[in-house]
Amino acid sequence: MRLAKRVSDMTGGGPDGWAIYYQARAMAEAGQPVTNLTIGEHDVRTDPAILDAMHRSARAGNTGYTFGAGKPALRAAVAERVELRTGVRTGPENVIITPGGQAGLFASHMVLCDAGDRALFIDPYYATYPGTIRATGAEAVPVPTRSADAFQPTAEVLDAHLPGARTLLINTPNNPTGVVWSRPTLERVADAVTRHGTWLISDEVYDTQIWEGEHLSPRALPGMAERTVVIGSMSKSHAMTGSRLGWVVAPAEVVTAITTLATSTTYGVAPFIQDAALFALQQGGAFESAIAEPFRRRRDIAMRVLGGPNPGLRLIPASGAMYLMLDIRATGLSGNAFAERLLAEEAIAVMPGESFGAAAAGHLRVAMTIEDNAFEDALVRIAAFAGRVVQEPAL
């Protein structure tokens, strides 16, 4: 029996990029100690108070269908949060609740792209981006950036790629690089998409994890609210990754279209999870800052340990998110080769930059997701390993 090509085509014919993670998991399951710095998930799980709110709601009978764009109280709370943080007038009609940010990304491309359209995404990129685009039948086109430019797109590269493009997907604070895009970069993007008539999709799930500078949503720039779709999530801001609660903020007609799509796909998010999310949002900014604080500490540890000269290794300044990007091209190894040897010789698992696109080749992504002392020890060992590789005789 023949299967539809749309799913097999989502990978573009290549691997999914998670080979090191799978190896590390297999080693751990076999009883071998592994320091796992691959996955962007909190080492401290969802706060018990949020789980209690979820339990109370479920026990109260909130276990039925949730048709439409989400519970009105939660949509209103998300709208209020977004307006407070960005200064852009946002109402419940601009919000749809989705089963996580990933579902929001998928739905946004589904309602904005047709088969044969060109849909752009910035390289480096989170591993699911191209597949999310290809699922619509659109052509997924990477827009390259350079390590020397802090992985932020130049005006020249934007103008070279944007003509005829239906959408451009950006992500700041950025996964995998840890870079927070500057205001000039976002103004450059806004100018380019406006001139070329392109929709902007902005993945802002790390907006509470800012270590330097500030987060600027491009939707807040002049004239951008009507052409910008923003993806948000409770996963990173409230350590609720498994609860699968996200949202899309967009012009009302986009929200209506995504709601139509949801009727034939997800049927919404469980009401007790929505109630827990509402409770979590009501805890305010101090609660969100407490969730982010471990990653701020670990970023500071990384700056102290790796911020100076290190043979074979250069730390890309991390301004946000829960990741570090290390440039290891001076070792002469690819990111894949370095990560494979690091796992085999040091039992430390990191993600090779090649998993996140050609622009990140020769780099590593390090997730700051283990206890502080163990994290510092791992960074010291990674730096020492890079130094040993540099000193190896050329073959």
TrEMBL record:
Enzyme class, spelled out: transferase
Record keyword 4Fe-4S present: no
Cofactors (names): pyridoxal 5'-phosphate
CDD domains: AAT_like
Gene3D superfamilies with a match to the protein in the record: Type I PLP-dependent aspartate aminotransferase-like (Major domain) (3.40.640.10)
SUPFAM superfamilies: PLP-dependent transferases
Catalytic activity, as annotated: L-aspartate + 2-oxoglutarate = oxaloacetate + L-glutamate
An MF annotation (GO) of this entry: transaminase activity
Entries under InterPro entries matching the protein: Aminotransferase_I/II_large, AspAT/PAT-like, NHTrfase_class1_PyrdxlP-BS, PyrdxlP-dep_Trfase, PyrdxlP-dep_Trfase_major
PROSITE patterns: AA_TRANSFER_CLASS_1
Pfam families in the cross-refs: Aminotran_1_2 (PF00155)
Domain Aminotransferase class I/classII large: 33-382
Keywords carried by this UniProt record: Aminotransferase, Pyridoxal phosphate, Transferase
EC number: 2.6.1.-
Family: Belongs to the class-I pyridoxal-phosphate-dependent aminotransferase family.
Designated name of the protein: Aminotransferase
